[in-house]
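can u do me a favor
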């Protein structure tokens, strides 16, 4: 509320009954998203219609969507299991905006979107379907901008700011320290994990048997009722994810407890962030216990109960009867008795009961929240979770028992005050305590100790994880906190960190125009297993498994422990393979040795894909900062001006000067000795190189491609070992190697200069007019101190881009030489002649193509070209060095 306003002018919509006219001549109507999505009933208008009727369809009144990210799922989208429907909340927000087209809309959110699709509710920004933007529809916008990766999301944020439609700020994270602590499971914990993994394998196998016993599956294993089969497996997978998430969180507690004890000894305050409190689980267990026993509870509240709940409530035991439809296809329907009660399959019930008996013998694992409170005592731990009840440990007069404690509605306020007033030095909060509260070392609070903030359980929602981290880093604080992520050495835990890591990148890019502001460095690049590189690597892994190329894990073994089919019933490799999310889910329930084996195979393939992308210059790293000795602006062209705001798009021609990275002969020899390489000379090109061992690549077939690294005076190249062995390289004596190496070093200029264009300023309105191969976005600072950000375009590509905007862009001879030699582009010199890069007998050449007849060939020779008769054809070449620039210039002038 604005300062000086009358709080009585804020009126909740709930004050007016459904269908009742809003009797408010002026003021502010406050509603919640839950209220907004309430439909009409009994002929009464809905809550949304009530608002529209009050304002009038032509109203230009302001509408403020606070916490607008609550409408993030405003449109349906394709998901791993089909189409994910839009949320009623998001739909209601869109309907209100469309019903009042003249209303002024303000979106307010600390975490606007964690992925591009979540921008769907921001319809009034005009990102699609308007004359100002080139995107015809939402789908067109998602498709084209999505191709640009995280860097494109950063451009979206910055362009919206330039157009005056978006303002974003964030609290400085200067001084905040980041740590990642890995808890290595003890042998006892590993044994427990493997026991539970085995249990889930057994349950998974019994689901199929139970479905057969209930007639859902035929004797051949074919589903008669796909919906019933899908429901059984979906419920199982959901229970499994929740269980292993809780299990891993609980197993981290010993390391967390030691860290907190160390913090307390050093005079610090500890803050623990988690997601789940297990309150729903507690309610279910209390319903089974007489209230008279609540003062001495003898029940284990453990994540194991999630599996028990699945077996009791979702394991397929209801009998189905088989019937045949008009097309002769067998179907099933649930069987009920005369009173409408479900009829159960005796065999399925027997299997379920046996599973429950077997699992009851597994060791219980305490929930993380209760473990922390019972270890340190509820007198020392401030719990801000919203739980209305909890089990606490009560020790008095020699008795040690667990009792039920009820908590009041004001418990969160009281616990926060106890922490900030330094009566309690440990605070644990969940999502319910992660919004609108402050736990920082406030200068106005008694507790100004250093906050050690532990992210114990990140959960699935990146925006909530970030909001939680912000609770201990606020303004007016004595000192910034230390953020620490607690992880384990369990490979399958990446199932949880991967989702958060990916969405944190997008969150930072969309909110601040800088991906790094999302995760604040807490999650590493390799934590993201949902990248294009990881998905491509997973397909390679599936191929290797199918072909029997994964040591220690056959196709049959993998399909058994993962419950994933890679082959059809006929034994053919499936085209529609399980996605990464499903693969990661299944890995969670594998024994730890199996997880390590599978992940080791996956990670080497991811590394290969990333290296290939880096070598090809297409690795997506968001906005990348260019560095050089000098950046000088040679030319600046205005290529677009926004008709409404006047914001401008420029093509800036930049000269880049870089100091050549030259390896001396002595250093080369030392490097070869230190890394076990050899000194070599190419007998044909008379060039020198040191040949070093390097990492191998994994081919699409799964075969290992061994490589060597050819290190030259100012460059290096990785080649397949078999190609190297077939080439003209030979091992050389040290004296002859040094002579040739030093000669090459003497020919290399101290500085290397090239040029490129940066399309900067406004990007979104001209997005589809730029070359789709130039999606990467860069930032740099010129010699004059100007900071530029935009899409980099090589000079040879800029020619076609300029034509799109009705302009001309002439390349210099030097730019043509660099484009062809360094980027291996083909560039037109005249109407008929072009210059291209080619390989002849293993050597790089610059070839002029397009000439006709002997006279044109002779003329090319007269301006500096030379010819060779190769495979019955006369070809023309220019020198593969700086001399080519003069030849190129003469050819262009004559053309």
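np, heres the sequence
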């Amino acid at each position: 509320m604005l300062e000086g306003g009358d709080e009585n002018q804020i009126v909740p919509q709930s004050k007016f009954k459904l269908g009742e006219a809003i009797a408010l001549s002026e003021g502010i109507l406050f509603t919640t998203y839950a209220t907004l999505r309430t439909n009409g009933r009994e002929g009464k208008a809905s809550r949304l219609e009530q608002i529209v009727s009050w304002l009038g369809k032509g109203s230009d009144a302001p509408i403020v969507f606070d916490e607008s990210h609550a409408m993030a799922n405003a449109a349906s989208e394709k998901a791993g299991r089909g189409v994910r429907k839009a949320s009623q909340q998001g739909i209601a927000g869109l309907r209100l905006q469309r019903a009042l087209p003249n209303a002024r809309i303000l979106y307010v959110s600390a975490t606007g979107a964690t992925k591009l699709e979540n921008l769907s509710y921001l319809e009034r920004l005009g990102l699609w379907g308007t004359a100002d933007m080139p995107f015809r529809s939402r789908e067109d916008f998602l498709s084209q901008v999505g191709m640009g990766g995280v860097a494109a999301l950063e451009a979206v944020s910055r362009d919206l700011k330039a157009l005056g439609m978006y303002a974003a700020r964030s609290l400085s994270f200067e001084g905040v320290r980041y740590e990642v602590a890995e808890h290595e499971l003890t042998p006892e914990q590993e044994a427990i994990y493997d026991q539970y993994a085995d249990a889930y394998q057994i349950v998974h196998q019994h689901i199929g048997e139970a479905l057969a016993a209930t007639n859902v599956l035929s004797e051949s294993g074919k589903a008669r009722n796909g919906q019933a089969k899908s429901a059984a497996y979906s419920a199982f997978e959901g229970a499994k994810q929740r269980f292993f998430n809780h299990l891993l969180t609980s197993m981290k507690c010993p390391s967390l407890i030691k860290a907190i004890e160390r913090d307390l000894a050093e005079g610090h305050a500890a803050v623990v962030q988690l997601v789940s409190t297990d309150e729903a689980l507690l309610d279910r267990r209390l319903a089974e216990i007489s209230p008279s026993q609540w003062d001495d509870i003898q029940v284990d509240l453990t994540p194991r109960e999630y599996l028990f709940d699945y077996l009791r409530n979702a394991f397929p035991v209801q009998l189905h009867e088989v019937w045949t439809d008009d097309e002769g296809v067998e179907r099933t329907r649930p069987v009920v008795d005369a009173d409408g009660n479900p009829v159960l399959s005796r065999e399925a019930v027997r299997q379920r009961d046996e599973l429950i008996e077997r699992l009851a013998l597994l060791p219980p694992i305490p929930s993380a929240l209760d473990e922390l409170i019972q270890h340190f005592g509820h007198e020392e731990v401030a719990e801000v979770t919203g739980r209305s009840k909890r089990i606490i440990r009560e020790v008095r007069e020699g008795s040690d028992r667990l009792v039920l404690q009820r908590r009041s509605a004001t418990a969160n306020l009281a616990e926060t005050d106890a922490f900030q007033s330094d009566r309690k030095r440990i605070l644990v909060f969940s999502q319910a305590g992660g919004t609108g509260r402050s736990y920082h070392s406030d200068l106005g609070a008694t507790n100004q100790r250093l906050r050690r903030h532990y992210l114990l359980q990140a959960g699935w929602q990146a925006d909530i994880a970030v909001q939680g981290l912000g609770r201990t880093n606020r303004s007016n604080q004595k000192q910034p906190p230390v953020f620490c992520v607690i992880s384990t050495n369990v490979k399958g835990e990446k199932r949880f960190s991967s989702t958060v890591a990916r969405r944190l990148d997008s969150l930072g890019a969309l909110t601040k125009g800088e991906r790094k502001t999302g995760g604040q460095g807490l999650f590493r690049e390799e934590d993201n297993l949902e990248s294009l590189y990881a998905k491509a690597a997973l397909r390679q892994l599936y191929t290797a498994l199918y072909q029997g190329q994964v040591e220690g894990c056959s196709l049959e073994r993998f399909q058994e422990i993962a419950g994933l089919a890679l082959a059809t019933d006929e034994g053919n490799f499936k085209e529609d393979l399980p996605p990464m999310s499903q693969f990661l889910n299944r890995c969670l329930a594998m024994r730890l040795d199996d997880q390590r084996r599978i992940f080791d195979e996956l990670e080497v393939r991811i590394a290969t894909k990333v290296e290939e992308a880096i070598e090809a210059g297409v690795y997506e790293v968001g906005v990348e900062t260019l560095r050089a000795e000098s950046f000088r602006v040679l030319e600046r062209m205005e290529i677009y001006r926004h008709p409404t705001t006047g914001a401008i798009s420029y093509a800036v021609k930049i000269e880049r000067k870089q100091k050549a990275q030259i390896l001396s002969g002595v250093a080369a020899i030392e490097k070869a000795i230190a890394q076990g390489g050899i000194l070599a000379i190419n007998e044909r090109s008379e060039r020198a190189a040191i040949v070093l061992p390097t990492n191998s690549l994994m081919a699409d077939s799964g075969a290992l491609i061994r490589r060597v690294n050819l290190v030259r005076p100012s460059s290096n190249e990785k080649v397949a070992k078999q190609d190297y062995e077939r080439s003209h390289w030979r091992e050389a004596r040290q004296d002859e190697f040094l002579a040739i190496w030093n000669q090459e070093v003497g020919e290399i200029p101290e500085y290397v200069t090239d040029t490129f264009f940066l399309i900067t300023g406004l990007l979104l309105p001209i997005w589809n007019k730029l070359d789709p191969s130039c999606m990467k976005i860069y930032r740099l600072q010129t010699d004059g101190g100007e900071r530029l950000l935009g899409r980099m375009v090589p000079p040879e590509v800029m020619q076609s881009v300029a034509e799109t905007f009705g302009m001309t862009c002439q390349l210099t001879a030097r730019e043509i030489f660099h484009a062809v030699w360094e980027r291996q582009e083909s560039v037109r010199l005249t109407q008929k002649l072009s210059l291209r890069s080619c390989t002849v007998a293993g050597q790089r050449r610059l070839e002029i193509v397009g000439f006709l007849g002997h006279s044109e060939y002779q003329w090319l020779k007269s301006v500096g070209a030379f010819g060779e008769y190769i495979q019955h054809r006369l070809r023309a070449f220019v020198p593969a060095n700086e001399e080519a620039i003069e030849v190129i210039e003469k050819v262009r002038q004559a053309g």
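The chain has a mean pLDDT of 83. hope that helps!!
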